[in-house]
Amino acid sequence: MIKIDCRFVENEYNAKPEHNNLNQIWTRNIMQLDIDRLVAYFGGVNALAEALKQHDPENAATTAAIYKWRTRGSLPLAQLQKLTALAEAQGRPLDLNAFLQKNESLERTEMTQTNRVIIFDTTMRDGEQSPGASMTKEEKIRIARQLEKMGVDVIEAGFAAASPGDFESVNAIAKIITKSTVCSLARAVENDVRKAGEAVSPAPKKRIHTFIATSPIHMEHKLKMKPQQVIDAAVKAVKIAKEYTDDVEFSAEDAVRSDLDFLAKIFTAVIEAGATTINIPDTVGYSIPSVWYERISNIIKSVPNGDKVVWSTHCHNDLGMAVANSLAAVQAGVRQVECTINGLGERAGNASLEEIVMALKVRHDLFGLETGIDTTQIVPVSKLVSTITGYPIQPNKAVVGANAFAHESGIHQDGVLKHPETYEIMTAESVGWSTNRLTLGKLSGRNAFKTKLADLGIELESEEALNAAFARFKELADKKREIFDEDLHALVSDEMGSLNAESYKFISQKISTETGEEPRANIVFSIRGEEKHATATGSGPVDAIFKAIESVAQSGATLQIYSVNAVTQGTESQGETSVRLQRGDRVVNGQGADTDVLVATAKAYLSALSKLEFGQAKPKAQGSGMI
Question: For residue 146, what is the enclosing H or E element?
Answer without folding.
Answer: helix 137-150
